[in-house]
Amino acid sequence: MAPPSRRHLLQIEGMDRPEIGALLDLAESYVLLNRTGKTPRDLLRGRTLINLFFEDSTRTRTSFELAGKRLGADVLNMSVSTSSVNKGETLLDTAATLNAMHCDLLVVRHDQSGAPHLLAQKVEASVVNAGDGTHEHPTQALLDALTIRRRRGRVEGLTVAICGDVMHSRVARSNIHLLLAMGAAVRVVGPPTLLPSAVERLGVEVFHDMATGLAGVDVVMMLRLQRERMAKGLVPSAREFFRFYGLDQAKLATAAPHALVMHPGPMNRGVEIASDVADDPLRSVIREQVEMGVAVRMAVLDRLTRAALANA
Amino acid sequence: MPESPAPDTLIERVRLLDPASGLDAQGSLLIRDGRIADHGTNLGRPDGATIVEGNGAILCPGLVDMRAQLGEPGYEYRETIASAAEAAAAGGITTLACLPDSRPALDDPALVRLLRARGEETGSLTILPYGALTRGCEGQDLAELGLLHEAGAVAFTDGGHAIGSARLMRRALAYAGGFGARIVQHPEEPSLAEGGTATEGELATRLGLPASPAAAEAILVARDIRLAELTGGAVHFAHVSTAEALALIRAAKDRGLAVTCDTAPPYFDLNETAIGEFRSFASLSPPLRSEADRMAVVAALADGTIDAIASDHQPRDADDKRLPFAQASAGGTGLVTLLAVTLAQVHGGTLPLIRALGLLTVEPARLLGADAGTLRKGAAADVCLFAPEHAWRVESGQLPGKAQNTPFDGRALEGRVLATWKSGRQVFAG
Q: How close is the nearest chain B Cα to the Cα of A40, in Å?
C-alpha cells in the first residue's frame, strides 16, 4: 500500500521496517550535522513551510520551525483557534488559502483525528501530521525510536512499556506501530479506563499493574495525563493516579537495570512521573528526545521534499 | 392526489410479485382510475390504454420506507421534499414515513397535517409523519400524543434521539398504548453512546476515534423490552445493528411481547471497515459495526426477527460532511439504493426474493398501519418495475435528489428500478 515515495507523512501505521529504518538513518546523519553546525542550508531554499497549529504546542512547533530553518526553508507559523465559530469552515478555507500561498510543506496539528488526512486531500503541499486528535503523532514516534537506537544501538529485541493514558494518546499509537514494525516487544500499562478497547489487537501485551508491567523492560515511556481525565471520571484523582501509575524510583526498580525513561512532554511532575525520576541523569533521556526531535523533523522534511521533486 | 381521468395503463409481460398475497406469476397488470384494476395472464388490451412493455422485469408494490429524515422543515439546504420525492421515485418508493426531529419538530398536530399535505403535493410520494414523542424531541415532556395521533401521526419517536429516561419511556409506552400507537426507539443508551462516532474495538482504537460500545444498543433494548412488558405498550426498535440486541428481540418475540424492529441497508451490507481512513460518508448513527454483527443482522433478516428494512435516509450537505470524522454529521442517504442493496442479499443467497420484497413493502406498511405495499385489486396503483440483475454503480454526485452523502459510494450493485407509478401515474422512468 505504501507508494515508493510518500508525498505526506500522516501516520506510522502502514510504514514498514526499511522505510522507517531509512528515515532514522537520515535523521542520525542530521544529528551529527546539527552538532557540527554544517546543515545543508540550501536543501529547502525557496520552499515554504507552514506550521498550521489548531492546538497549542510550543515544543513541537518550535522543533519543526528550527528543522525547517536549518534546511533553509521560509517558515511561517499559523495558529488557528479551534474555539472559533465553525471549525470545519476554518479547516477547508485554510486549505484554500494555503494553496493560494503556494506552500510546499504543511505541518499540521489538530485536535481531531484524521484532520491532516482531510487536509492532505485538499492541499497541494506535502502534509506532515504533527499530532491529530487521539490518532497519531508520527514524528514523536520517530524521535523516540532514534533516541532508543542511539542509546541501545538497536530497537529490535527490546521490550518497551508505554504507561498511563494510552486511550487518549496519539504518541502511544504511533509508538506502538513503529516499535512493533522495528521488532520490539511492546507493553501497555494503565488503568482499564485509560486503555482503548481491543488494544491487544494492535499486538501489545496489556498490564494494569506497574510492578508487573515494568518487570524487566528496557524502556519506560510515560504519557501525559491531562487534568480533564479526572474531571470526566476516568480516574478519581491525580494523587490516586500517581500512587498506582505514576513513575517513581520504587516502581522503576522492577525494570531492567539502566532502563531508559522517556516522556513526550510536557510533563506533569507528581502526576505521571516523579521529579527525581524525570531528572535522573542515569535514566531519563527526556532532554535528548528534544534534540532528536529536530533531527527527525529535518529528515522528514528532507525526505518529503525529495519525494515531491521526484513526483513532479 | 389530484385524480385526473387518465387513460388506462397496461404493464405487460412482467413477473408479478406481491409478498402480501404470496403472488409470484408471469402476467400483466392493469391500472384504471389510479387503482389496480386487475392482474393476471390473460388481460385484454383496453381501448386507448397506455401499454408498457415489461420485458420480463419484476413488478412489485411500490416500496414503503418506514424511516427517513426529510430536509424539510428546517434543513432545506440539505434536501427539500421535492428533491426527496425525486430520489424516492427513482428508488421505487411510493410511501415514506418521515422522522419528527426536524426544525421545528413535528410536535404539533398542524405540522403533521402539513407534512401529509406536502406529500400529496408531490404527486409521487405519500408522506406519513411520525409524531414527536416529546416536545421539540428534547426528551423532557410528552408531546400531545393523542392529538398528534388524531392528526395522522403513524407512531411516536424522538427520531435520532434515544429516549434515555426509563421513567419517560415507561409513561410513553403506557400512554401511547391507550391510542394503540407504537413507540419507536433509537436504541443506544445515551450516556454510553455520548460522543461515540464509531464502535469500540480495534478499528476505532487504531484510528483514535471517540467510540461507544456495541453493548449500548443491547442495554437500551433490554430495558425497553422490560418496560413494554410492564406497560403492555408496543415498542419498535429502529435500525437495529448488533447481534446482542437482535437476540434480545428474538427472545421477546418468542414470549409474545409487542416488540418489533427494523434495520437499514448499511447494517447488513457494510461493516466498520467502510470508515477506511476517516471517510465521513461512513459516519452513521448508530455507527457501523463489526463483521460479526453485520452477519447477525443478515441472519435476523432471514429468520424473521427483523420486521422491515428501512432506508434510514439522512440527507446531509457537503459542509456537514467535509469535516474531520468525529465532527462530521452522522447519517447517510438511502432512498435510491434501498432496493438494490437489499437485492444484494437476494443475489448472495441469504434472503429469498419474496421475503426481501416483503420487508420493503407489506411488512413496513403493516407496522405503519398504512394501506399500501400490496398489489391487491382495488388498491392504489403504487407499483415499482425493476430489473433484478441490471448492474450499476453508486456514484455520489450522480444520484437523483439533492443529498449525495451515500455510504455506498462506489458500490457495484445489481437491480435497478425501471419505472415507478404513484396512484397510476408514472412518476419515474429509468
A: 36
Q: Which of B348, B365, B359 is nearest to B294 (CA)?
A: B348
Provide the residue-wise pLDDT of chain B in tens; the chain has 430 residues.
Answer: 555 567 899 999 999 999 999 999 999 999 999 999 999 998 889 999 999 999 999 999 999 999 999 999 999 999 999 999 999 999 999 999 999 999 999 999 999 999 999 999 999 999 999 999 999 999 999 999 999 999 999 999 999 999 999 999 999 999 999 999 999 999 999 999 999 999 999 999 999 999 999 999 999 999 999 999 999 999 999 999 999 999 999 999 999 999 999 999 999 999 999 999 999 999 999 999 999 999 999 999 999 999 999 999 999 999 899 999 999 999 999 999 999 999 999 999 999 999 999 999 999 999 999 999 999 999 999 999 999 999 999 999 999 999 999 999 999 999 999 999 999 999 999 8
The count of CB pairs under 8 A between chains A and B is: 75
Q: How many CB atoms lie within 10 A of CB A305?
A: 19
- Count how many Cα atoms sit within 13 Å of the Cα of residue A83 in the half-sphere of its side chain: 1
- DSSP class of residue A78 equals E
Please tell me if residue B281 touches chain A, with a CB cutoff of 8 Å: no
DSSP state of A261: E
B82 close contact with A: CB closer than 8 A: no
Which letter does DSSP use for residue B62 in this model? P
Residues B208, A198: C-beta atoms closer than 8 Å: no
B373 neighbors B20 (Cβ within 8 angstroms): yes
Flag whether residue A152 sits within 8 Å of chain B, measured between CB atoms. Answer: no
Contact B324 A110 (CB under 8 A): yes
> Which set of grid coordinates corresponds to residue A160?
518497551
Measured between beta carbons, which residues in chain A are less than 8 angstroms from residue B323?
A: 87-88, 91, 112, 118
Residue B296 contacts residue B242 (beta carbons within 8 Å): yes
Burial of B123 (0-12, 13-18, 19+ CB in 10 A): middle
Q: How confident is the model at residue A98 (pLDDT cuts 50, 70, 90)?
A: confident
B255 touches chain A (CB under 8 A): no
Residues A146, A149, A150: CA angle, nearest 5 degrees: 85
Which amino acid is present at A58?
Answer: T
Strand runs labelled E in B325-382: none
CA distance A118 to A121: 5
- Cα dist. A189→A207, A209, A220, A225, A237 in Å? 5, 7, 10, 13, 18
Q: Which residues of B are catalytic?
A: 312
ipTM: 0.94
Reply yes or no: is the peptide bond before residue B266 cis, omega within 30 of 0: no
DSSP B123-169: SS-EEEEPEESBGGG-SSSB--HHHHHHHT--SEE-TTS----HHHH
| Nearest C-alpha neighbor of B271 from the set B285, B291, B287 | B291
Measured between CA atoms, how close is A174 to chain B, in angstroms? 10
Give the separation between CA B337 and CA B266, rounded to whole angstroms: 10
DSSP letter assigned to residue B280:
G
Rounded to whole angstroms, the Cα distance separating B285 from B247 reads: 20
